[in-house]
Amino acid sequence: MKLLVTVLGRRPSDYVRVLWQVGEKRYGPFGPPAQALVEYEQADHALLLIPDSLIEPQGESHPVQEWVAELDGPFEPLVLPSRYAPKVEGNVLDFYYAALFHFVDWFREQSLKPEEPLTIVLEGSTGLNVLQLLLYRAVVDFAQTLAYTREVNLKVYTADPVNPKMVEQVVALHLTESRPVIPALSRLGLHQGIELLLPGKIVGPDHNFRIKRDELGRYWHKDDLRAFLAAVYQGIPLGILTWYPAQDKKAWRVLAELYTYASRKTEFNDGKLVRLIELTEWWCAYALGMLLAVELQTHFAELLDRWKRTDLATLQDLEKLVERLYRHAPVLRNRFQAERTIRDLNVNGVSLPVLLDDIMRGSASRERGSERRVNRRNFFAHMGFERNAVEVGLIPDSGEIGFRYSENSKKTIQRFLRTSV
Predict the structure, then answer these.
(1) Over the stretch 272-302, which tens digit does the pLDDT of each residue have?
(2) Which residues contact residue 384 at a Cβ distance below 8 angstroms, ignoring those fewer than 6 apart?
(3) Contact in structure between 343 and 315 (CB atoms under 8 Å)
């Protein structure tokens, strides 16, 4: 699939109509260069980001659909908060958080096959302004997260400057970046005190907001989210399964309701539209977490179903997870293959489930529930297979050996993961 992403700097009809040249081909006359790129790249989808500061706040309707019709292509509009015009006041980062949120929301509705590659084409020619930088960052974060599970390529185009005297002249579009995307997650500086929405003086006393926030926490608590993202970041396959969101669809629904809540909290002051609520880095965390959850379900439905039923993962399950997510990280793949503590286990005569430490030491008779020290260094050095944290059990029906974290160790491990990113 090929996806084009662009942002409007003005109404499409206000762009100067020129002949866009891409390589040896010319297109147009068109206004926005994205119209030429849709044809040149043969894009399947085109996301049109429209800063809401371009839209006159008069009445309840806005000309978005009219603008899309002017472009005459496969454009899907996304209206995002911005400070693109002086008449709007708010946090400039809202555009980035909202863009990433909407990218994931759009992707969740697609039906990509597990092996289907994705090419993202970013048209970056709408002026040298902060929106282009924020959009580039959002596209890269989106692409790098998807690259954990599928082949992703990124192409970035920019254009020569255009002025009103250049009507129907030839203007070049340049391919300035073209590369396969390597999987990566940002080191998220998520602190315990940070909330989903700011400022607190607006959202804190709001009863409806608190209800939705608590509902989101029940479906996917922020500590579980941090542990999940950290497990992906650090390469801890058993941690990924342990903190995978079992109710991701419900959590996303609540997050979407909170987004609507935030976008409606505005007021007019001295002729300006003032945003009363800011999005925070938690929007980025939830968006990336949900994107990974969607992709894991697409690629590992059988594994996740078995985990949901038995709370156990076989060695084969873990091998598939590591091979897919860390195919570009040979150090992690090799470390997993060399992890002897979970291979060639002899469980004959052992009452299961039992800690790996007991099996390896041949001391399965230790009193269950006794204090077991989980070593942080060993935990990360062995990709999460710390002997005093991992239990071994037999999966019902199949009789295969399965692995999970013991109940007594989960809080400790979650703390290790949360504080690692």
Answers:
(1) 889 999 999 999 999 999 999 999 999 999 9
(2) 231, 236, 237, 238, 239, 390, 413
(3) yes
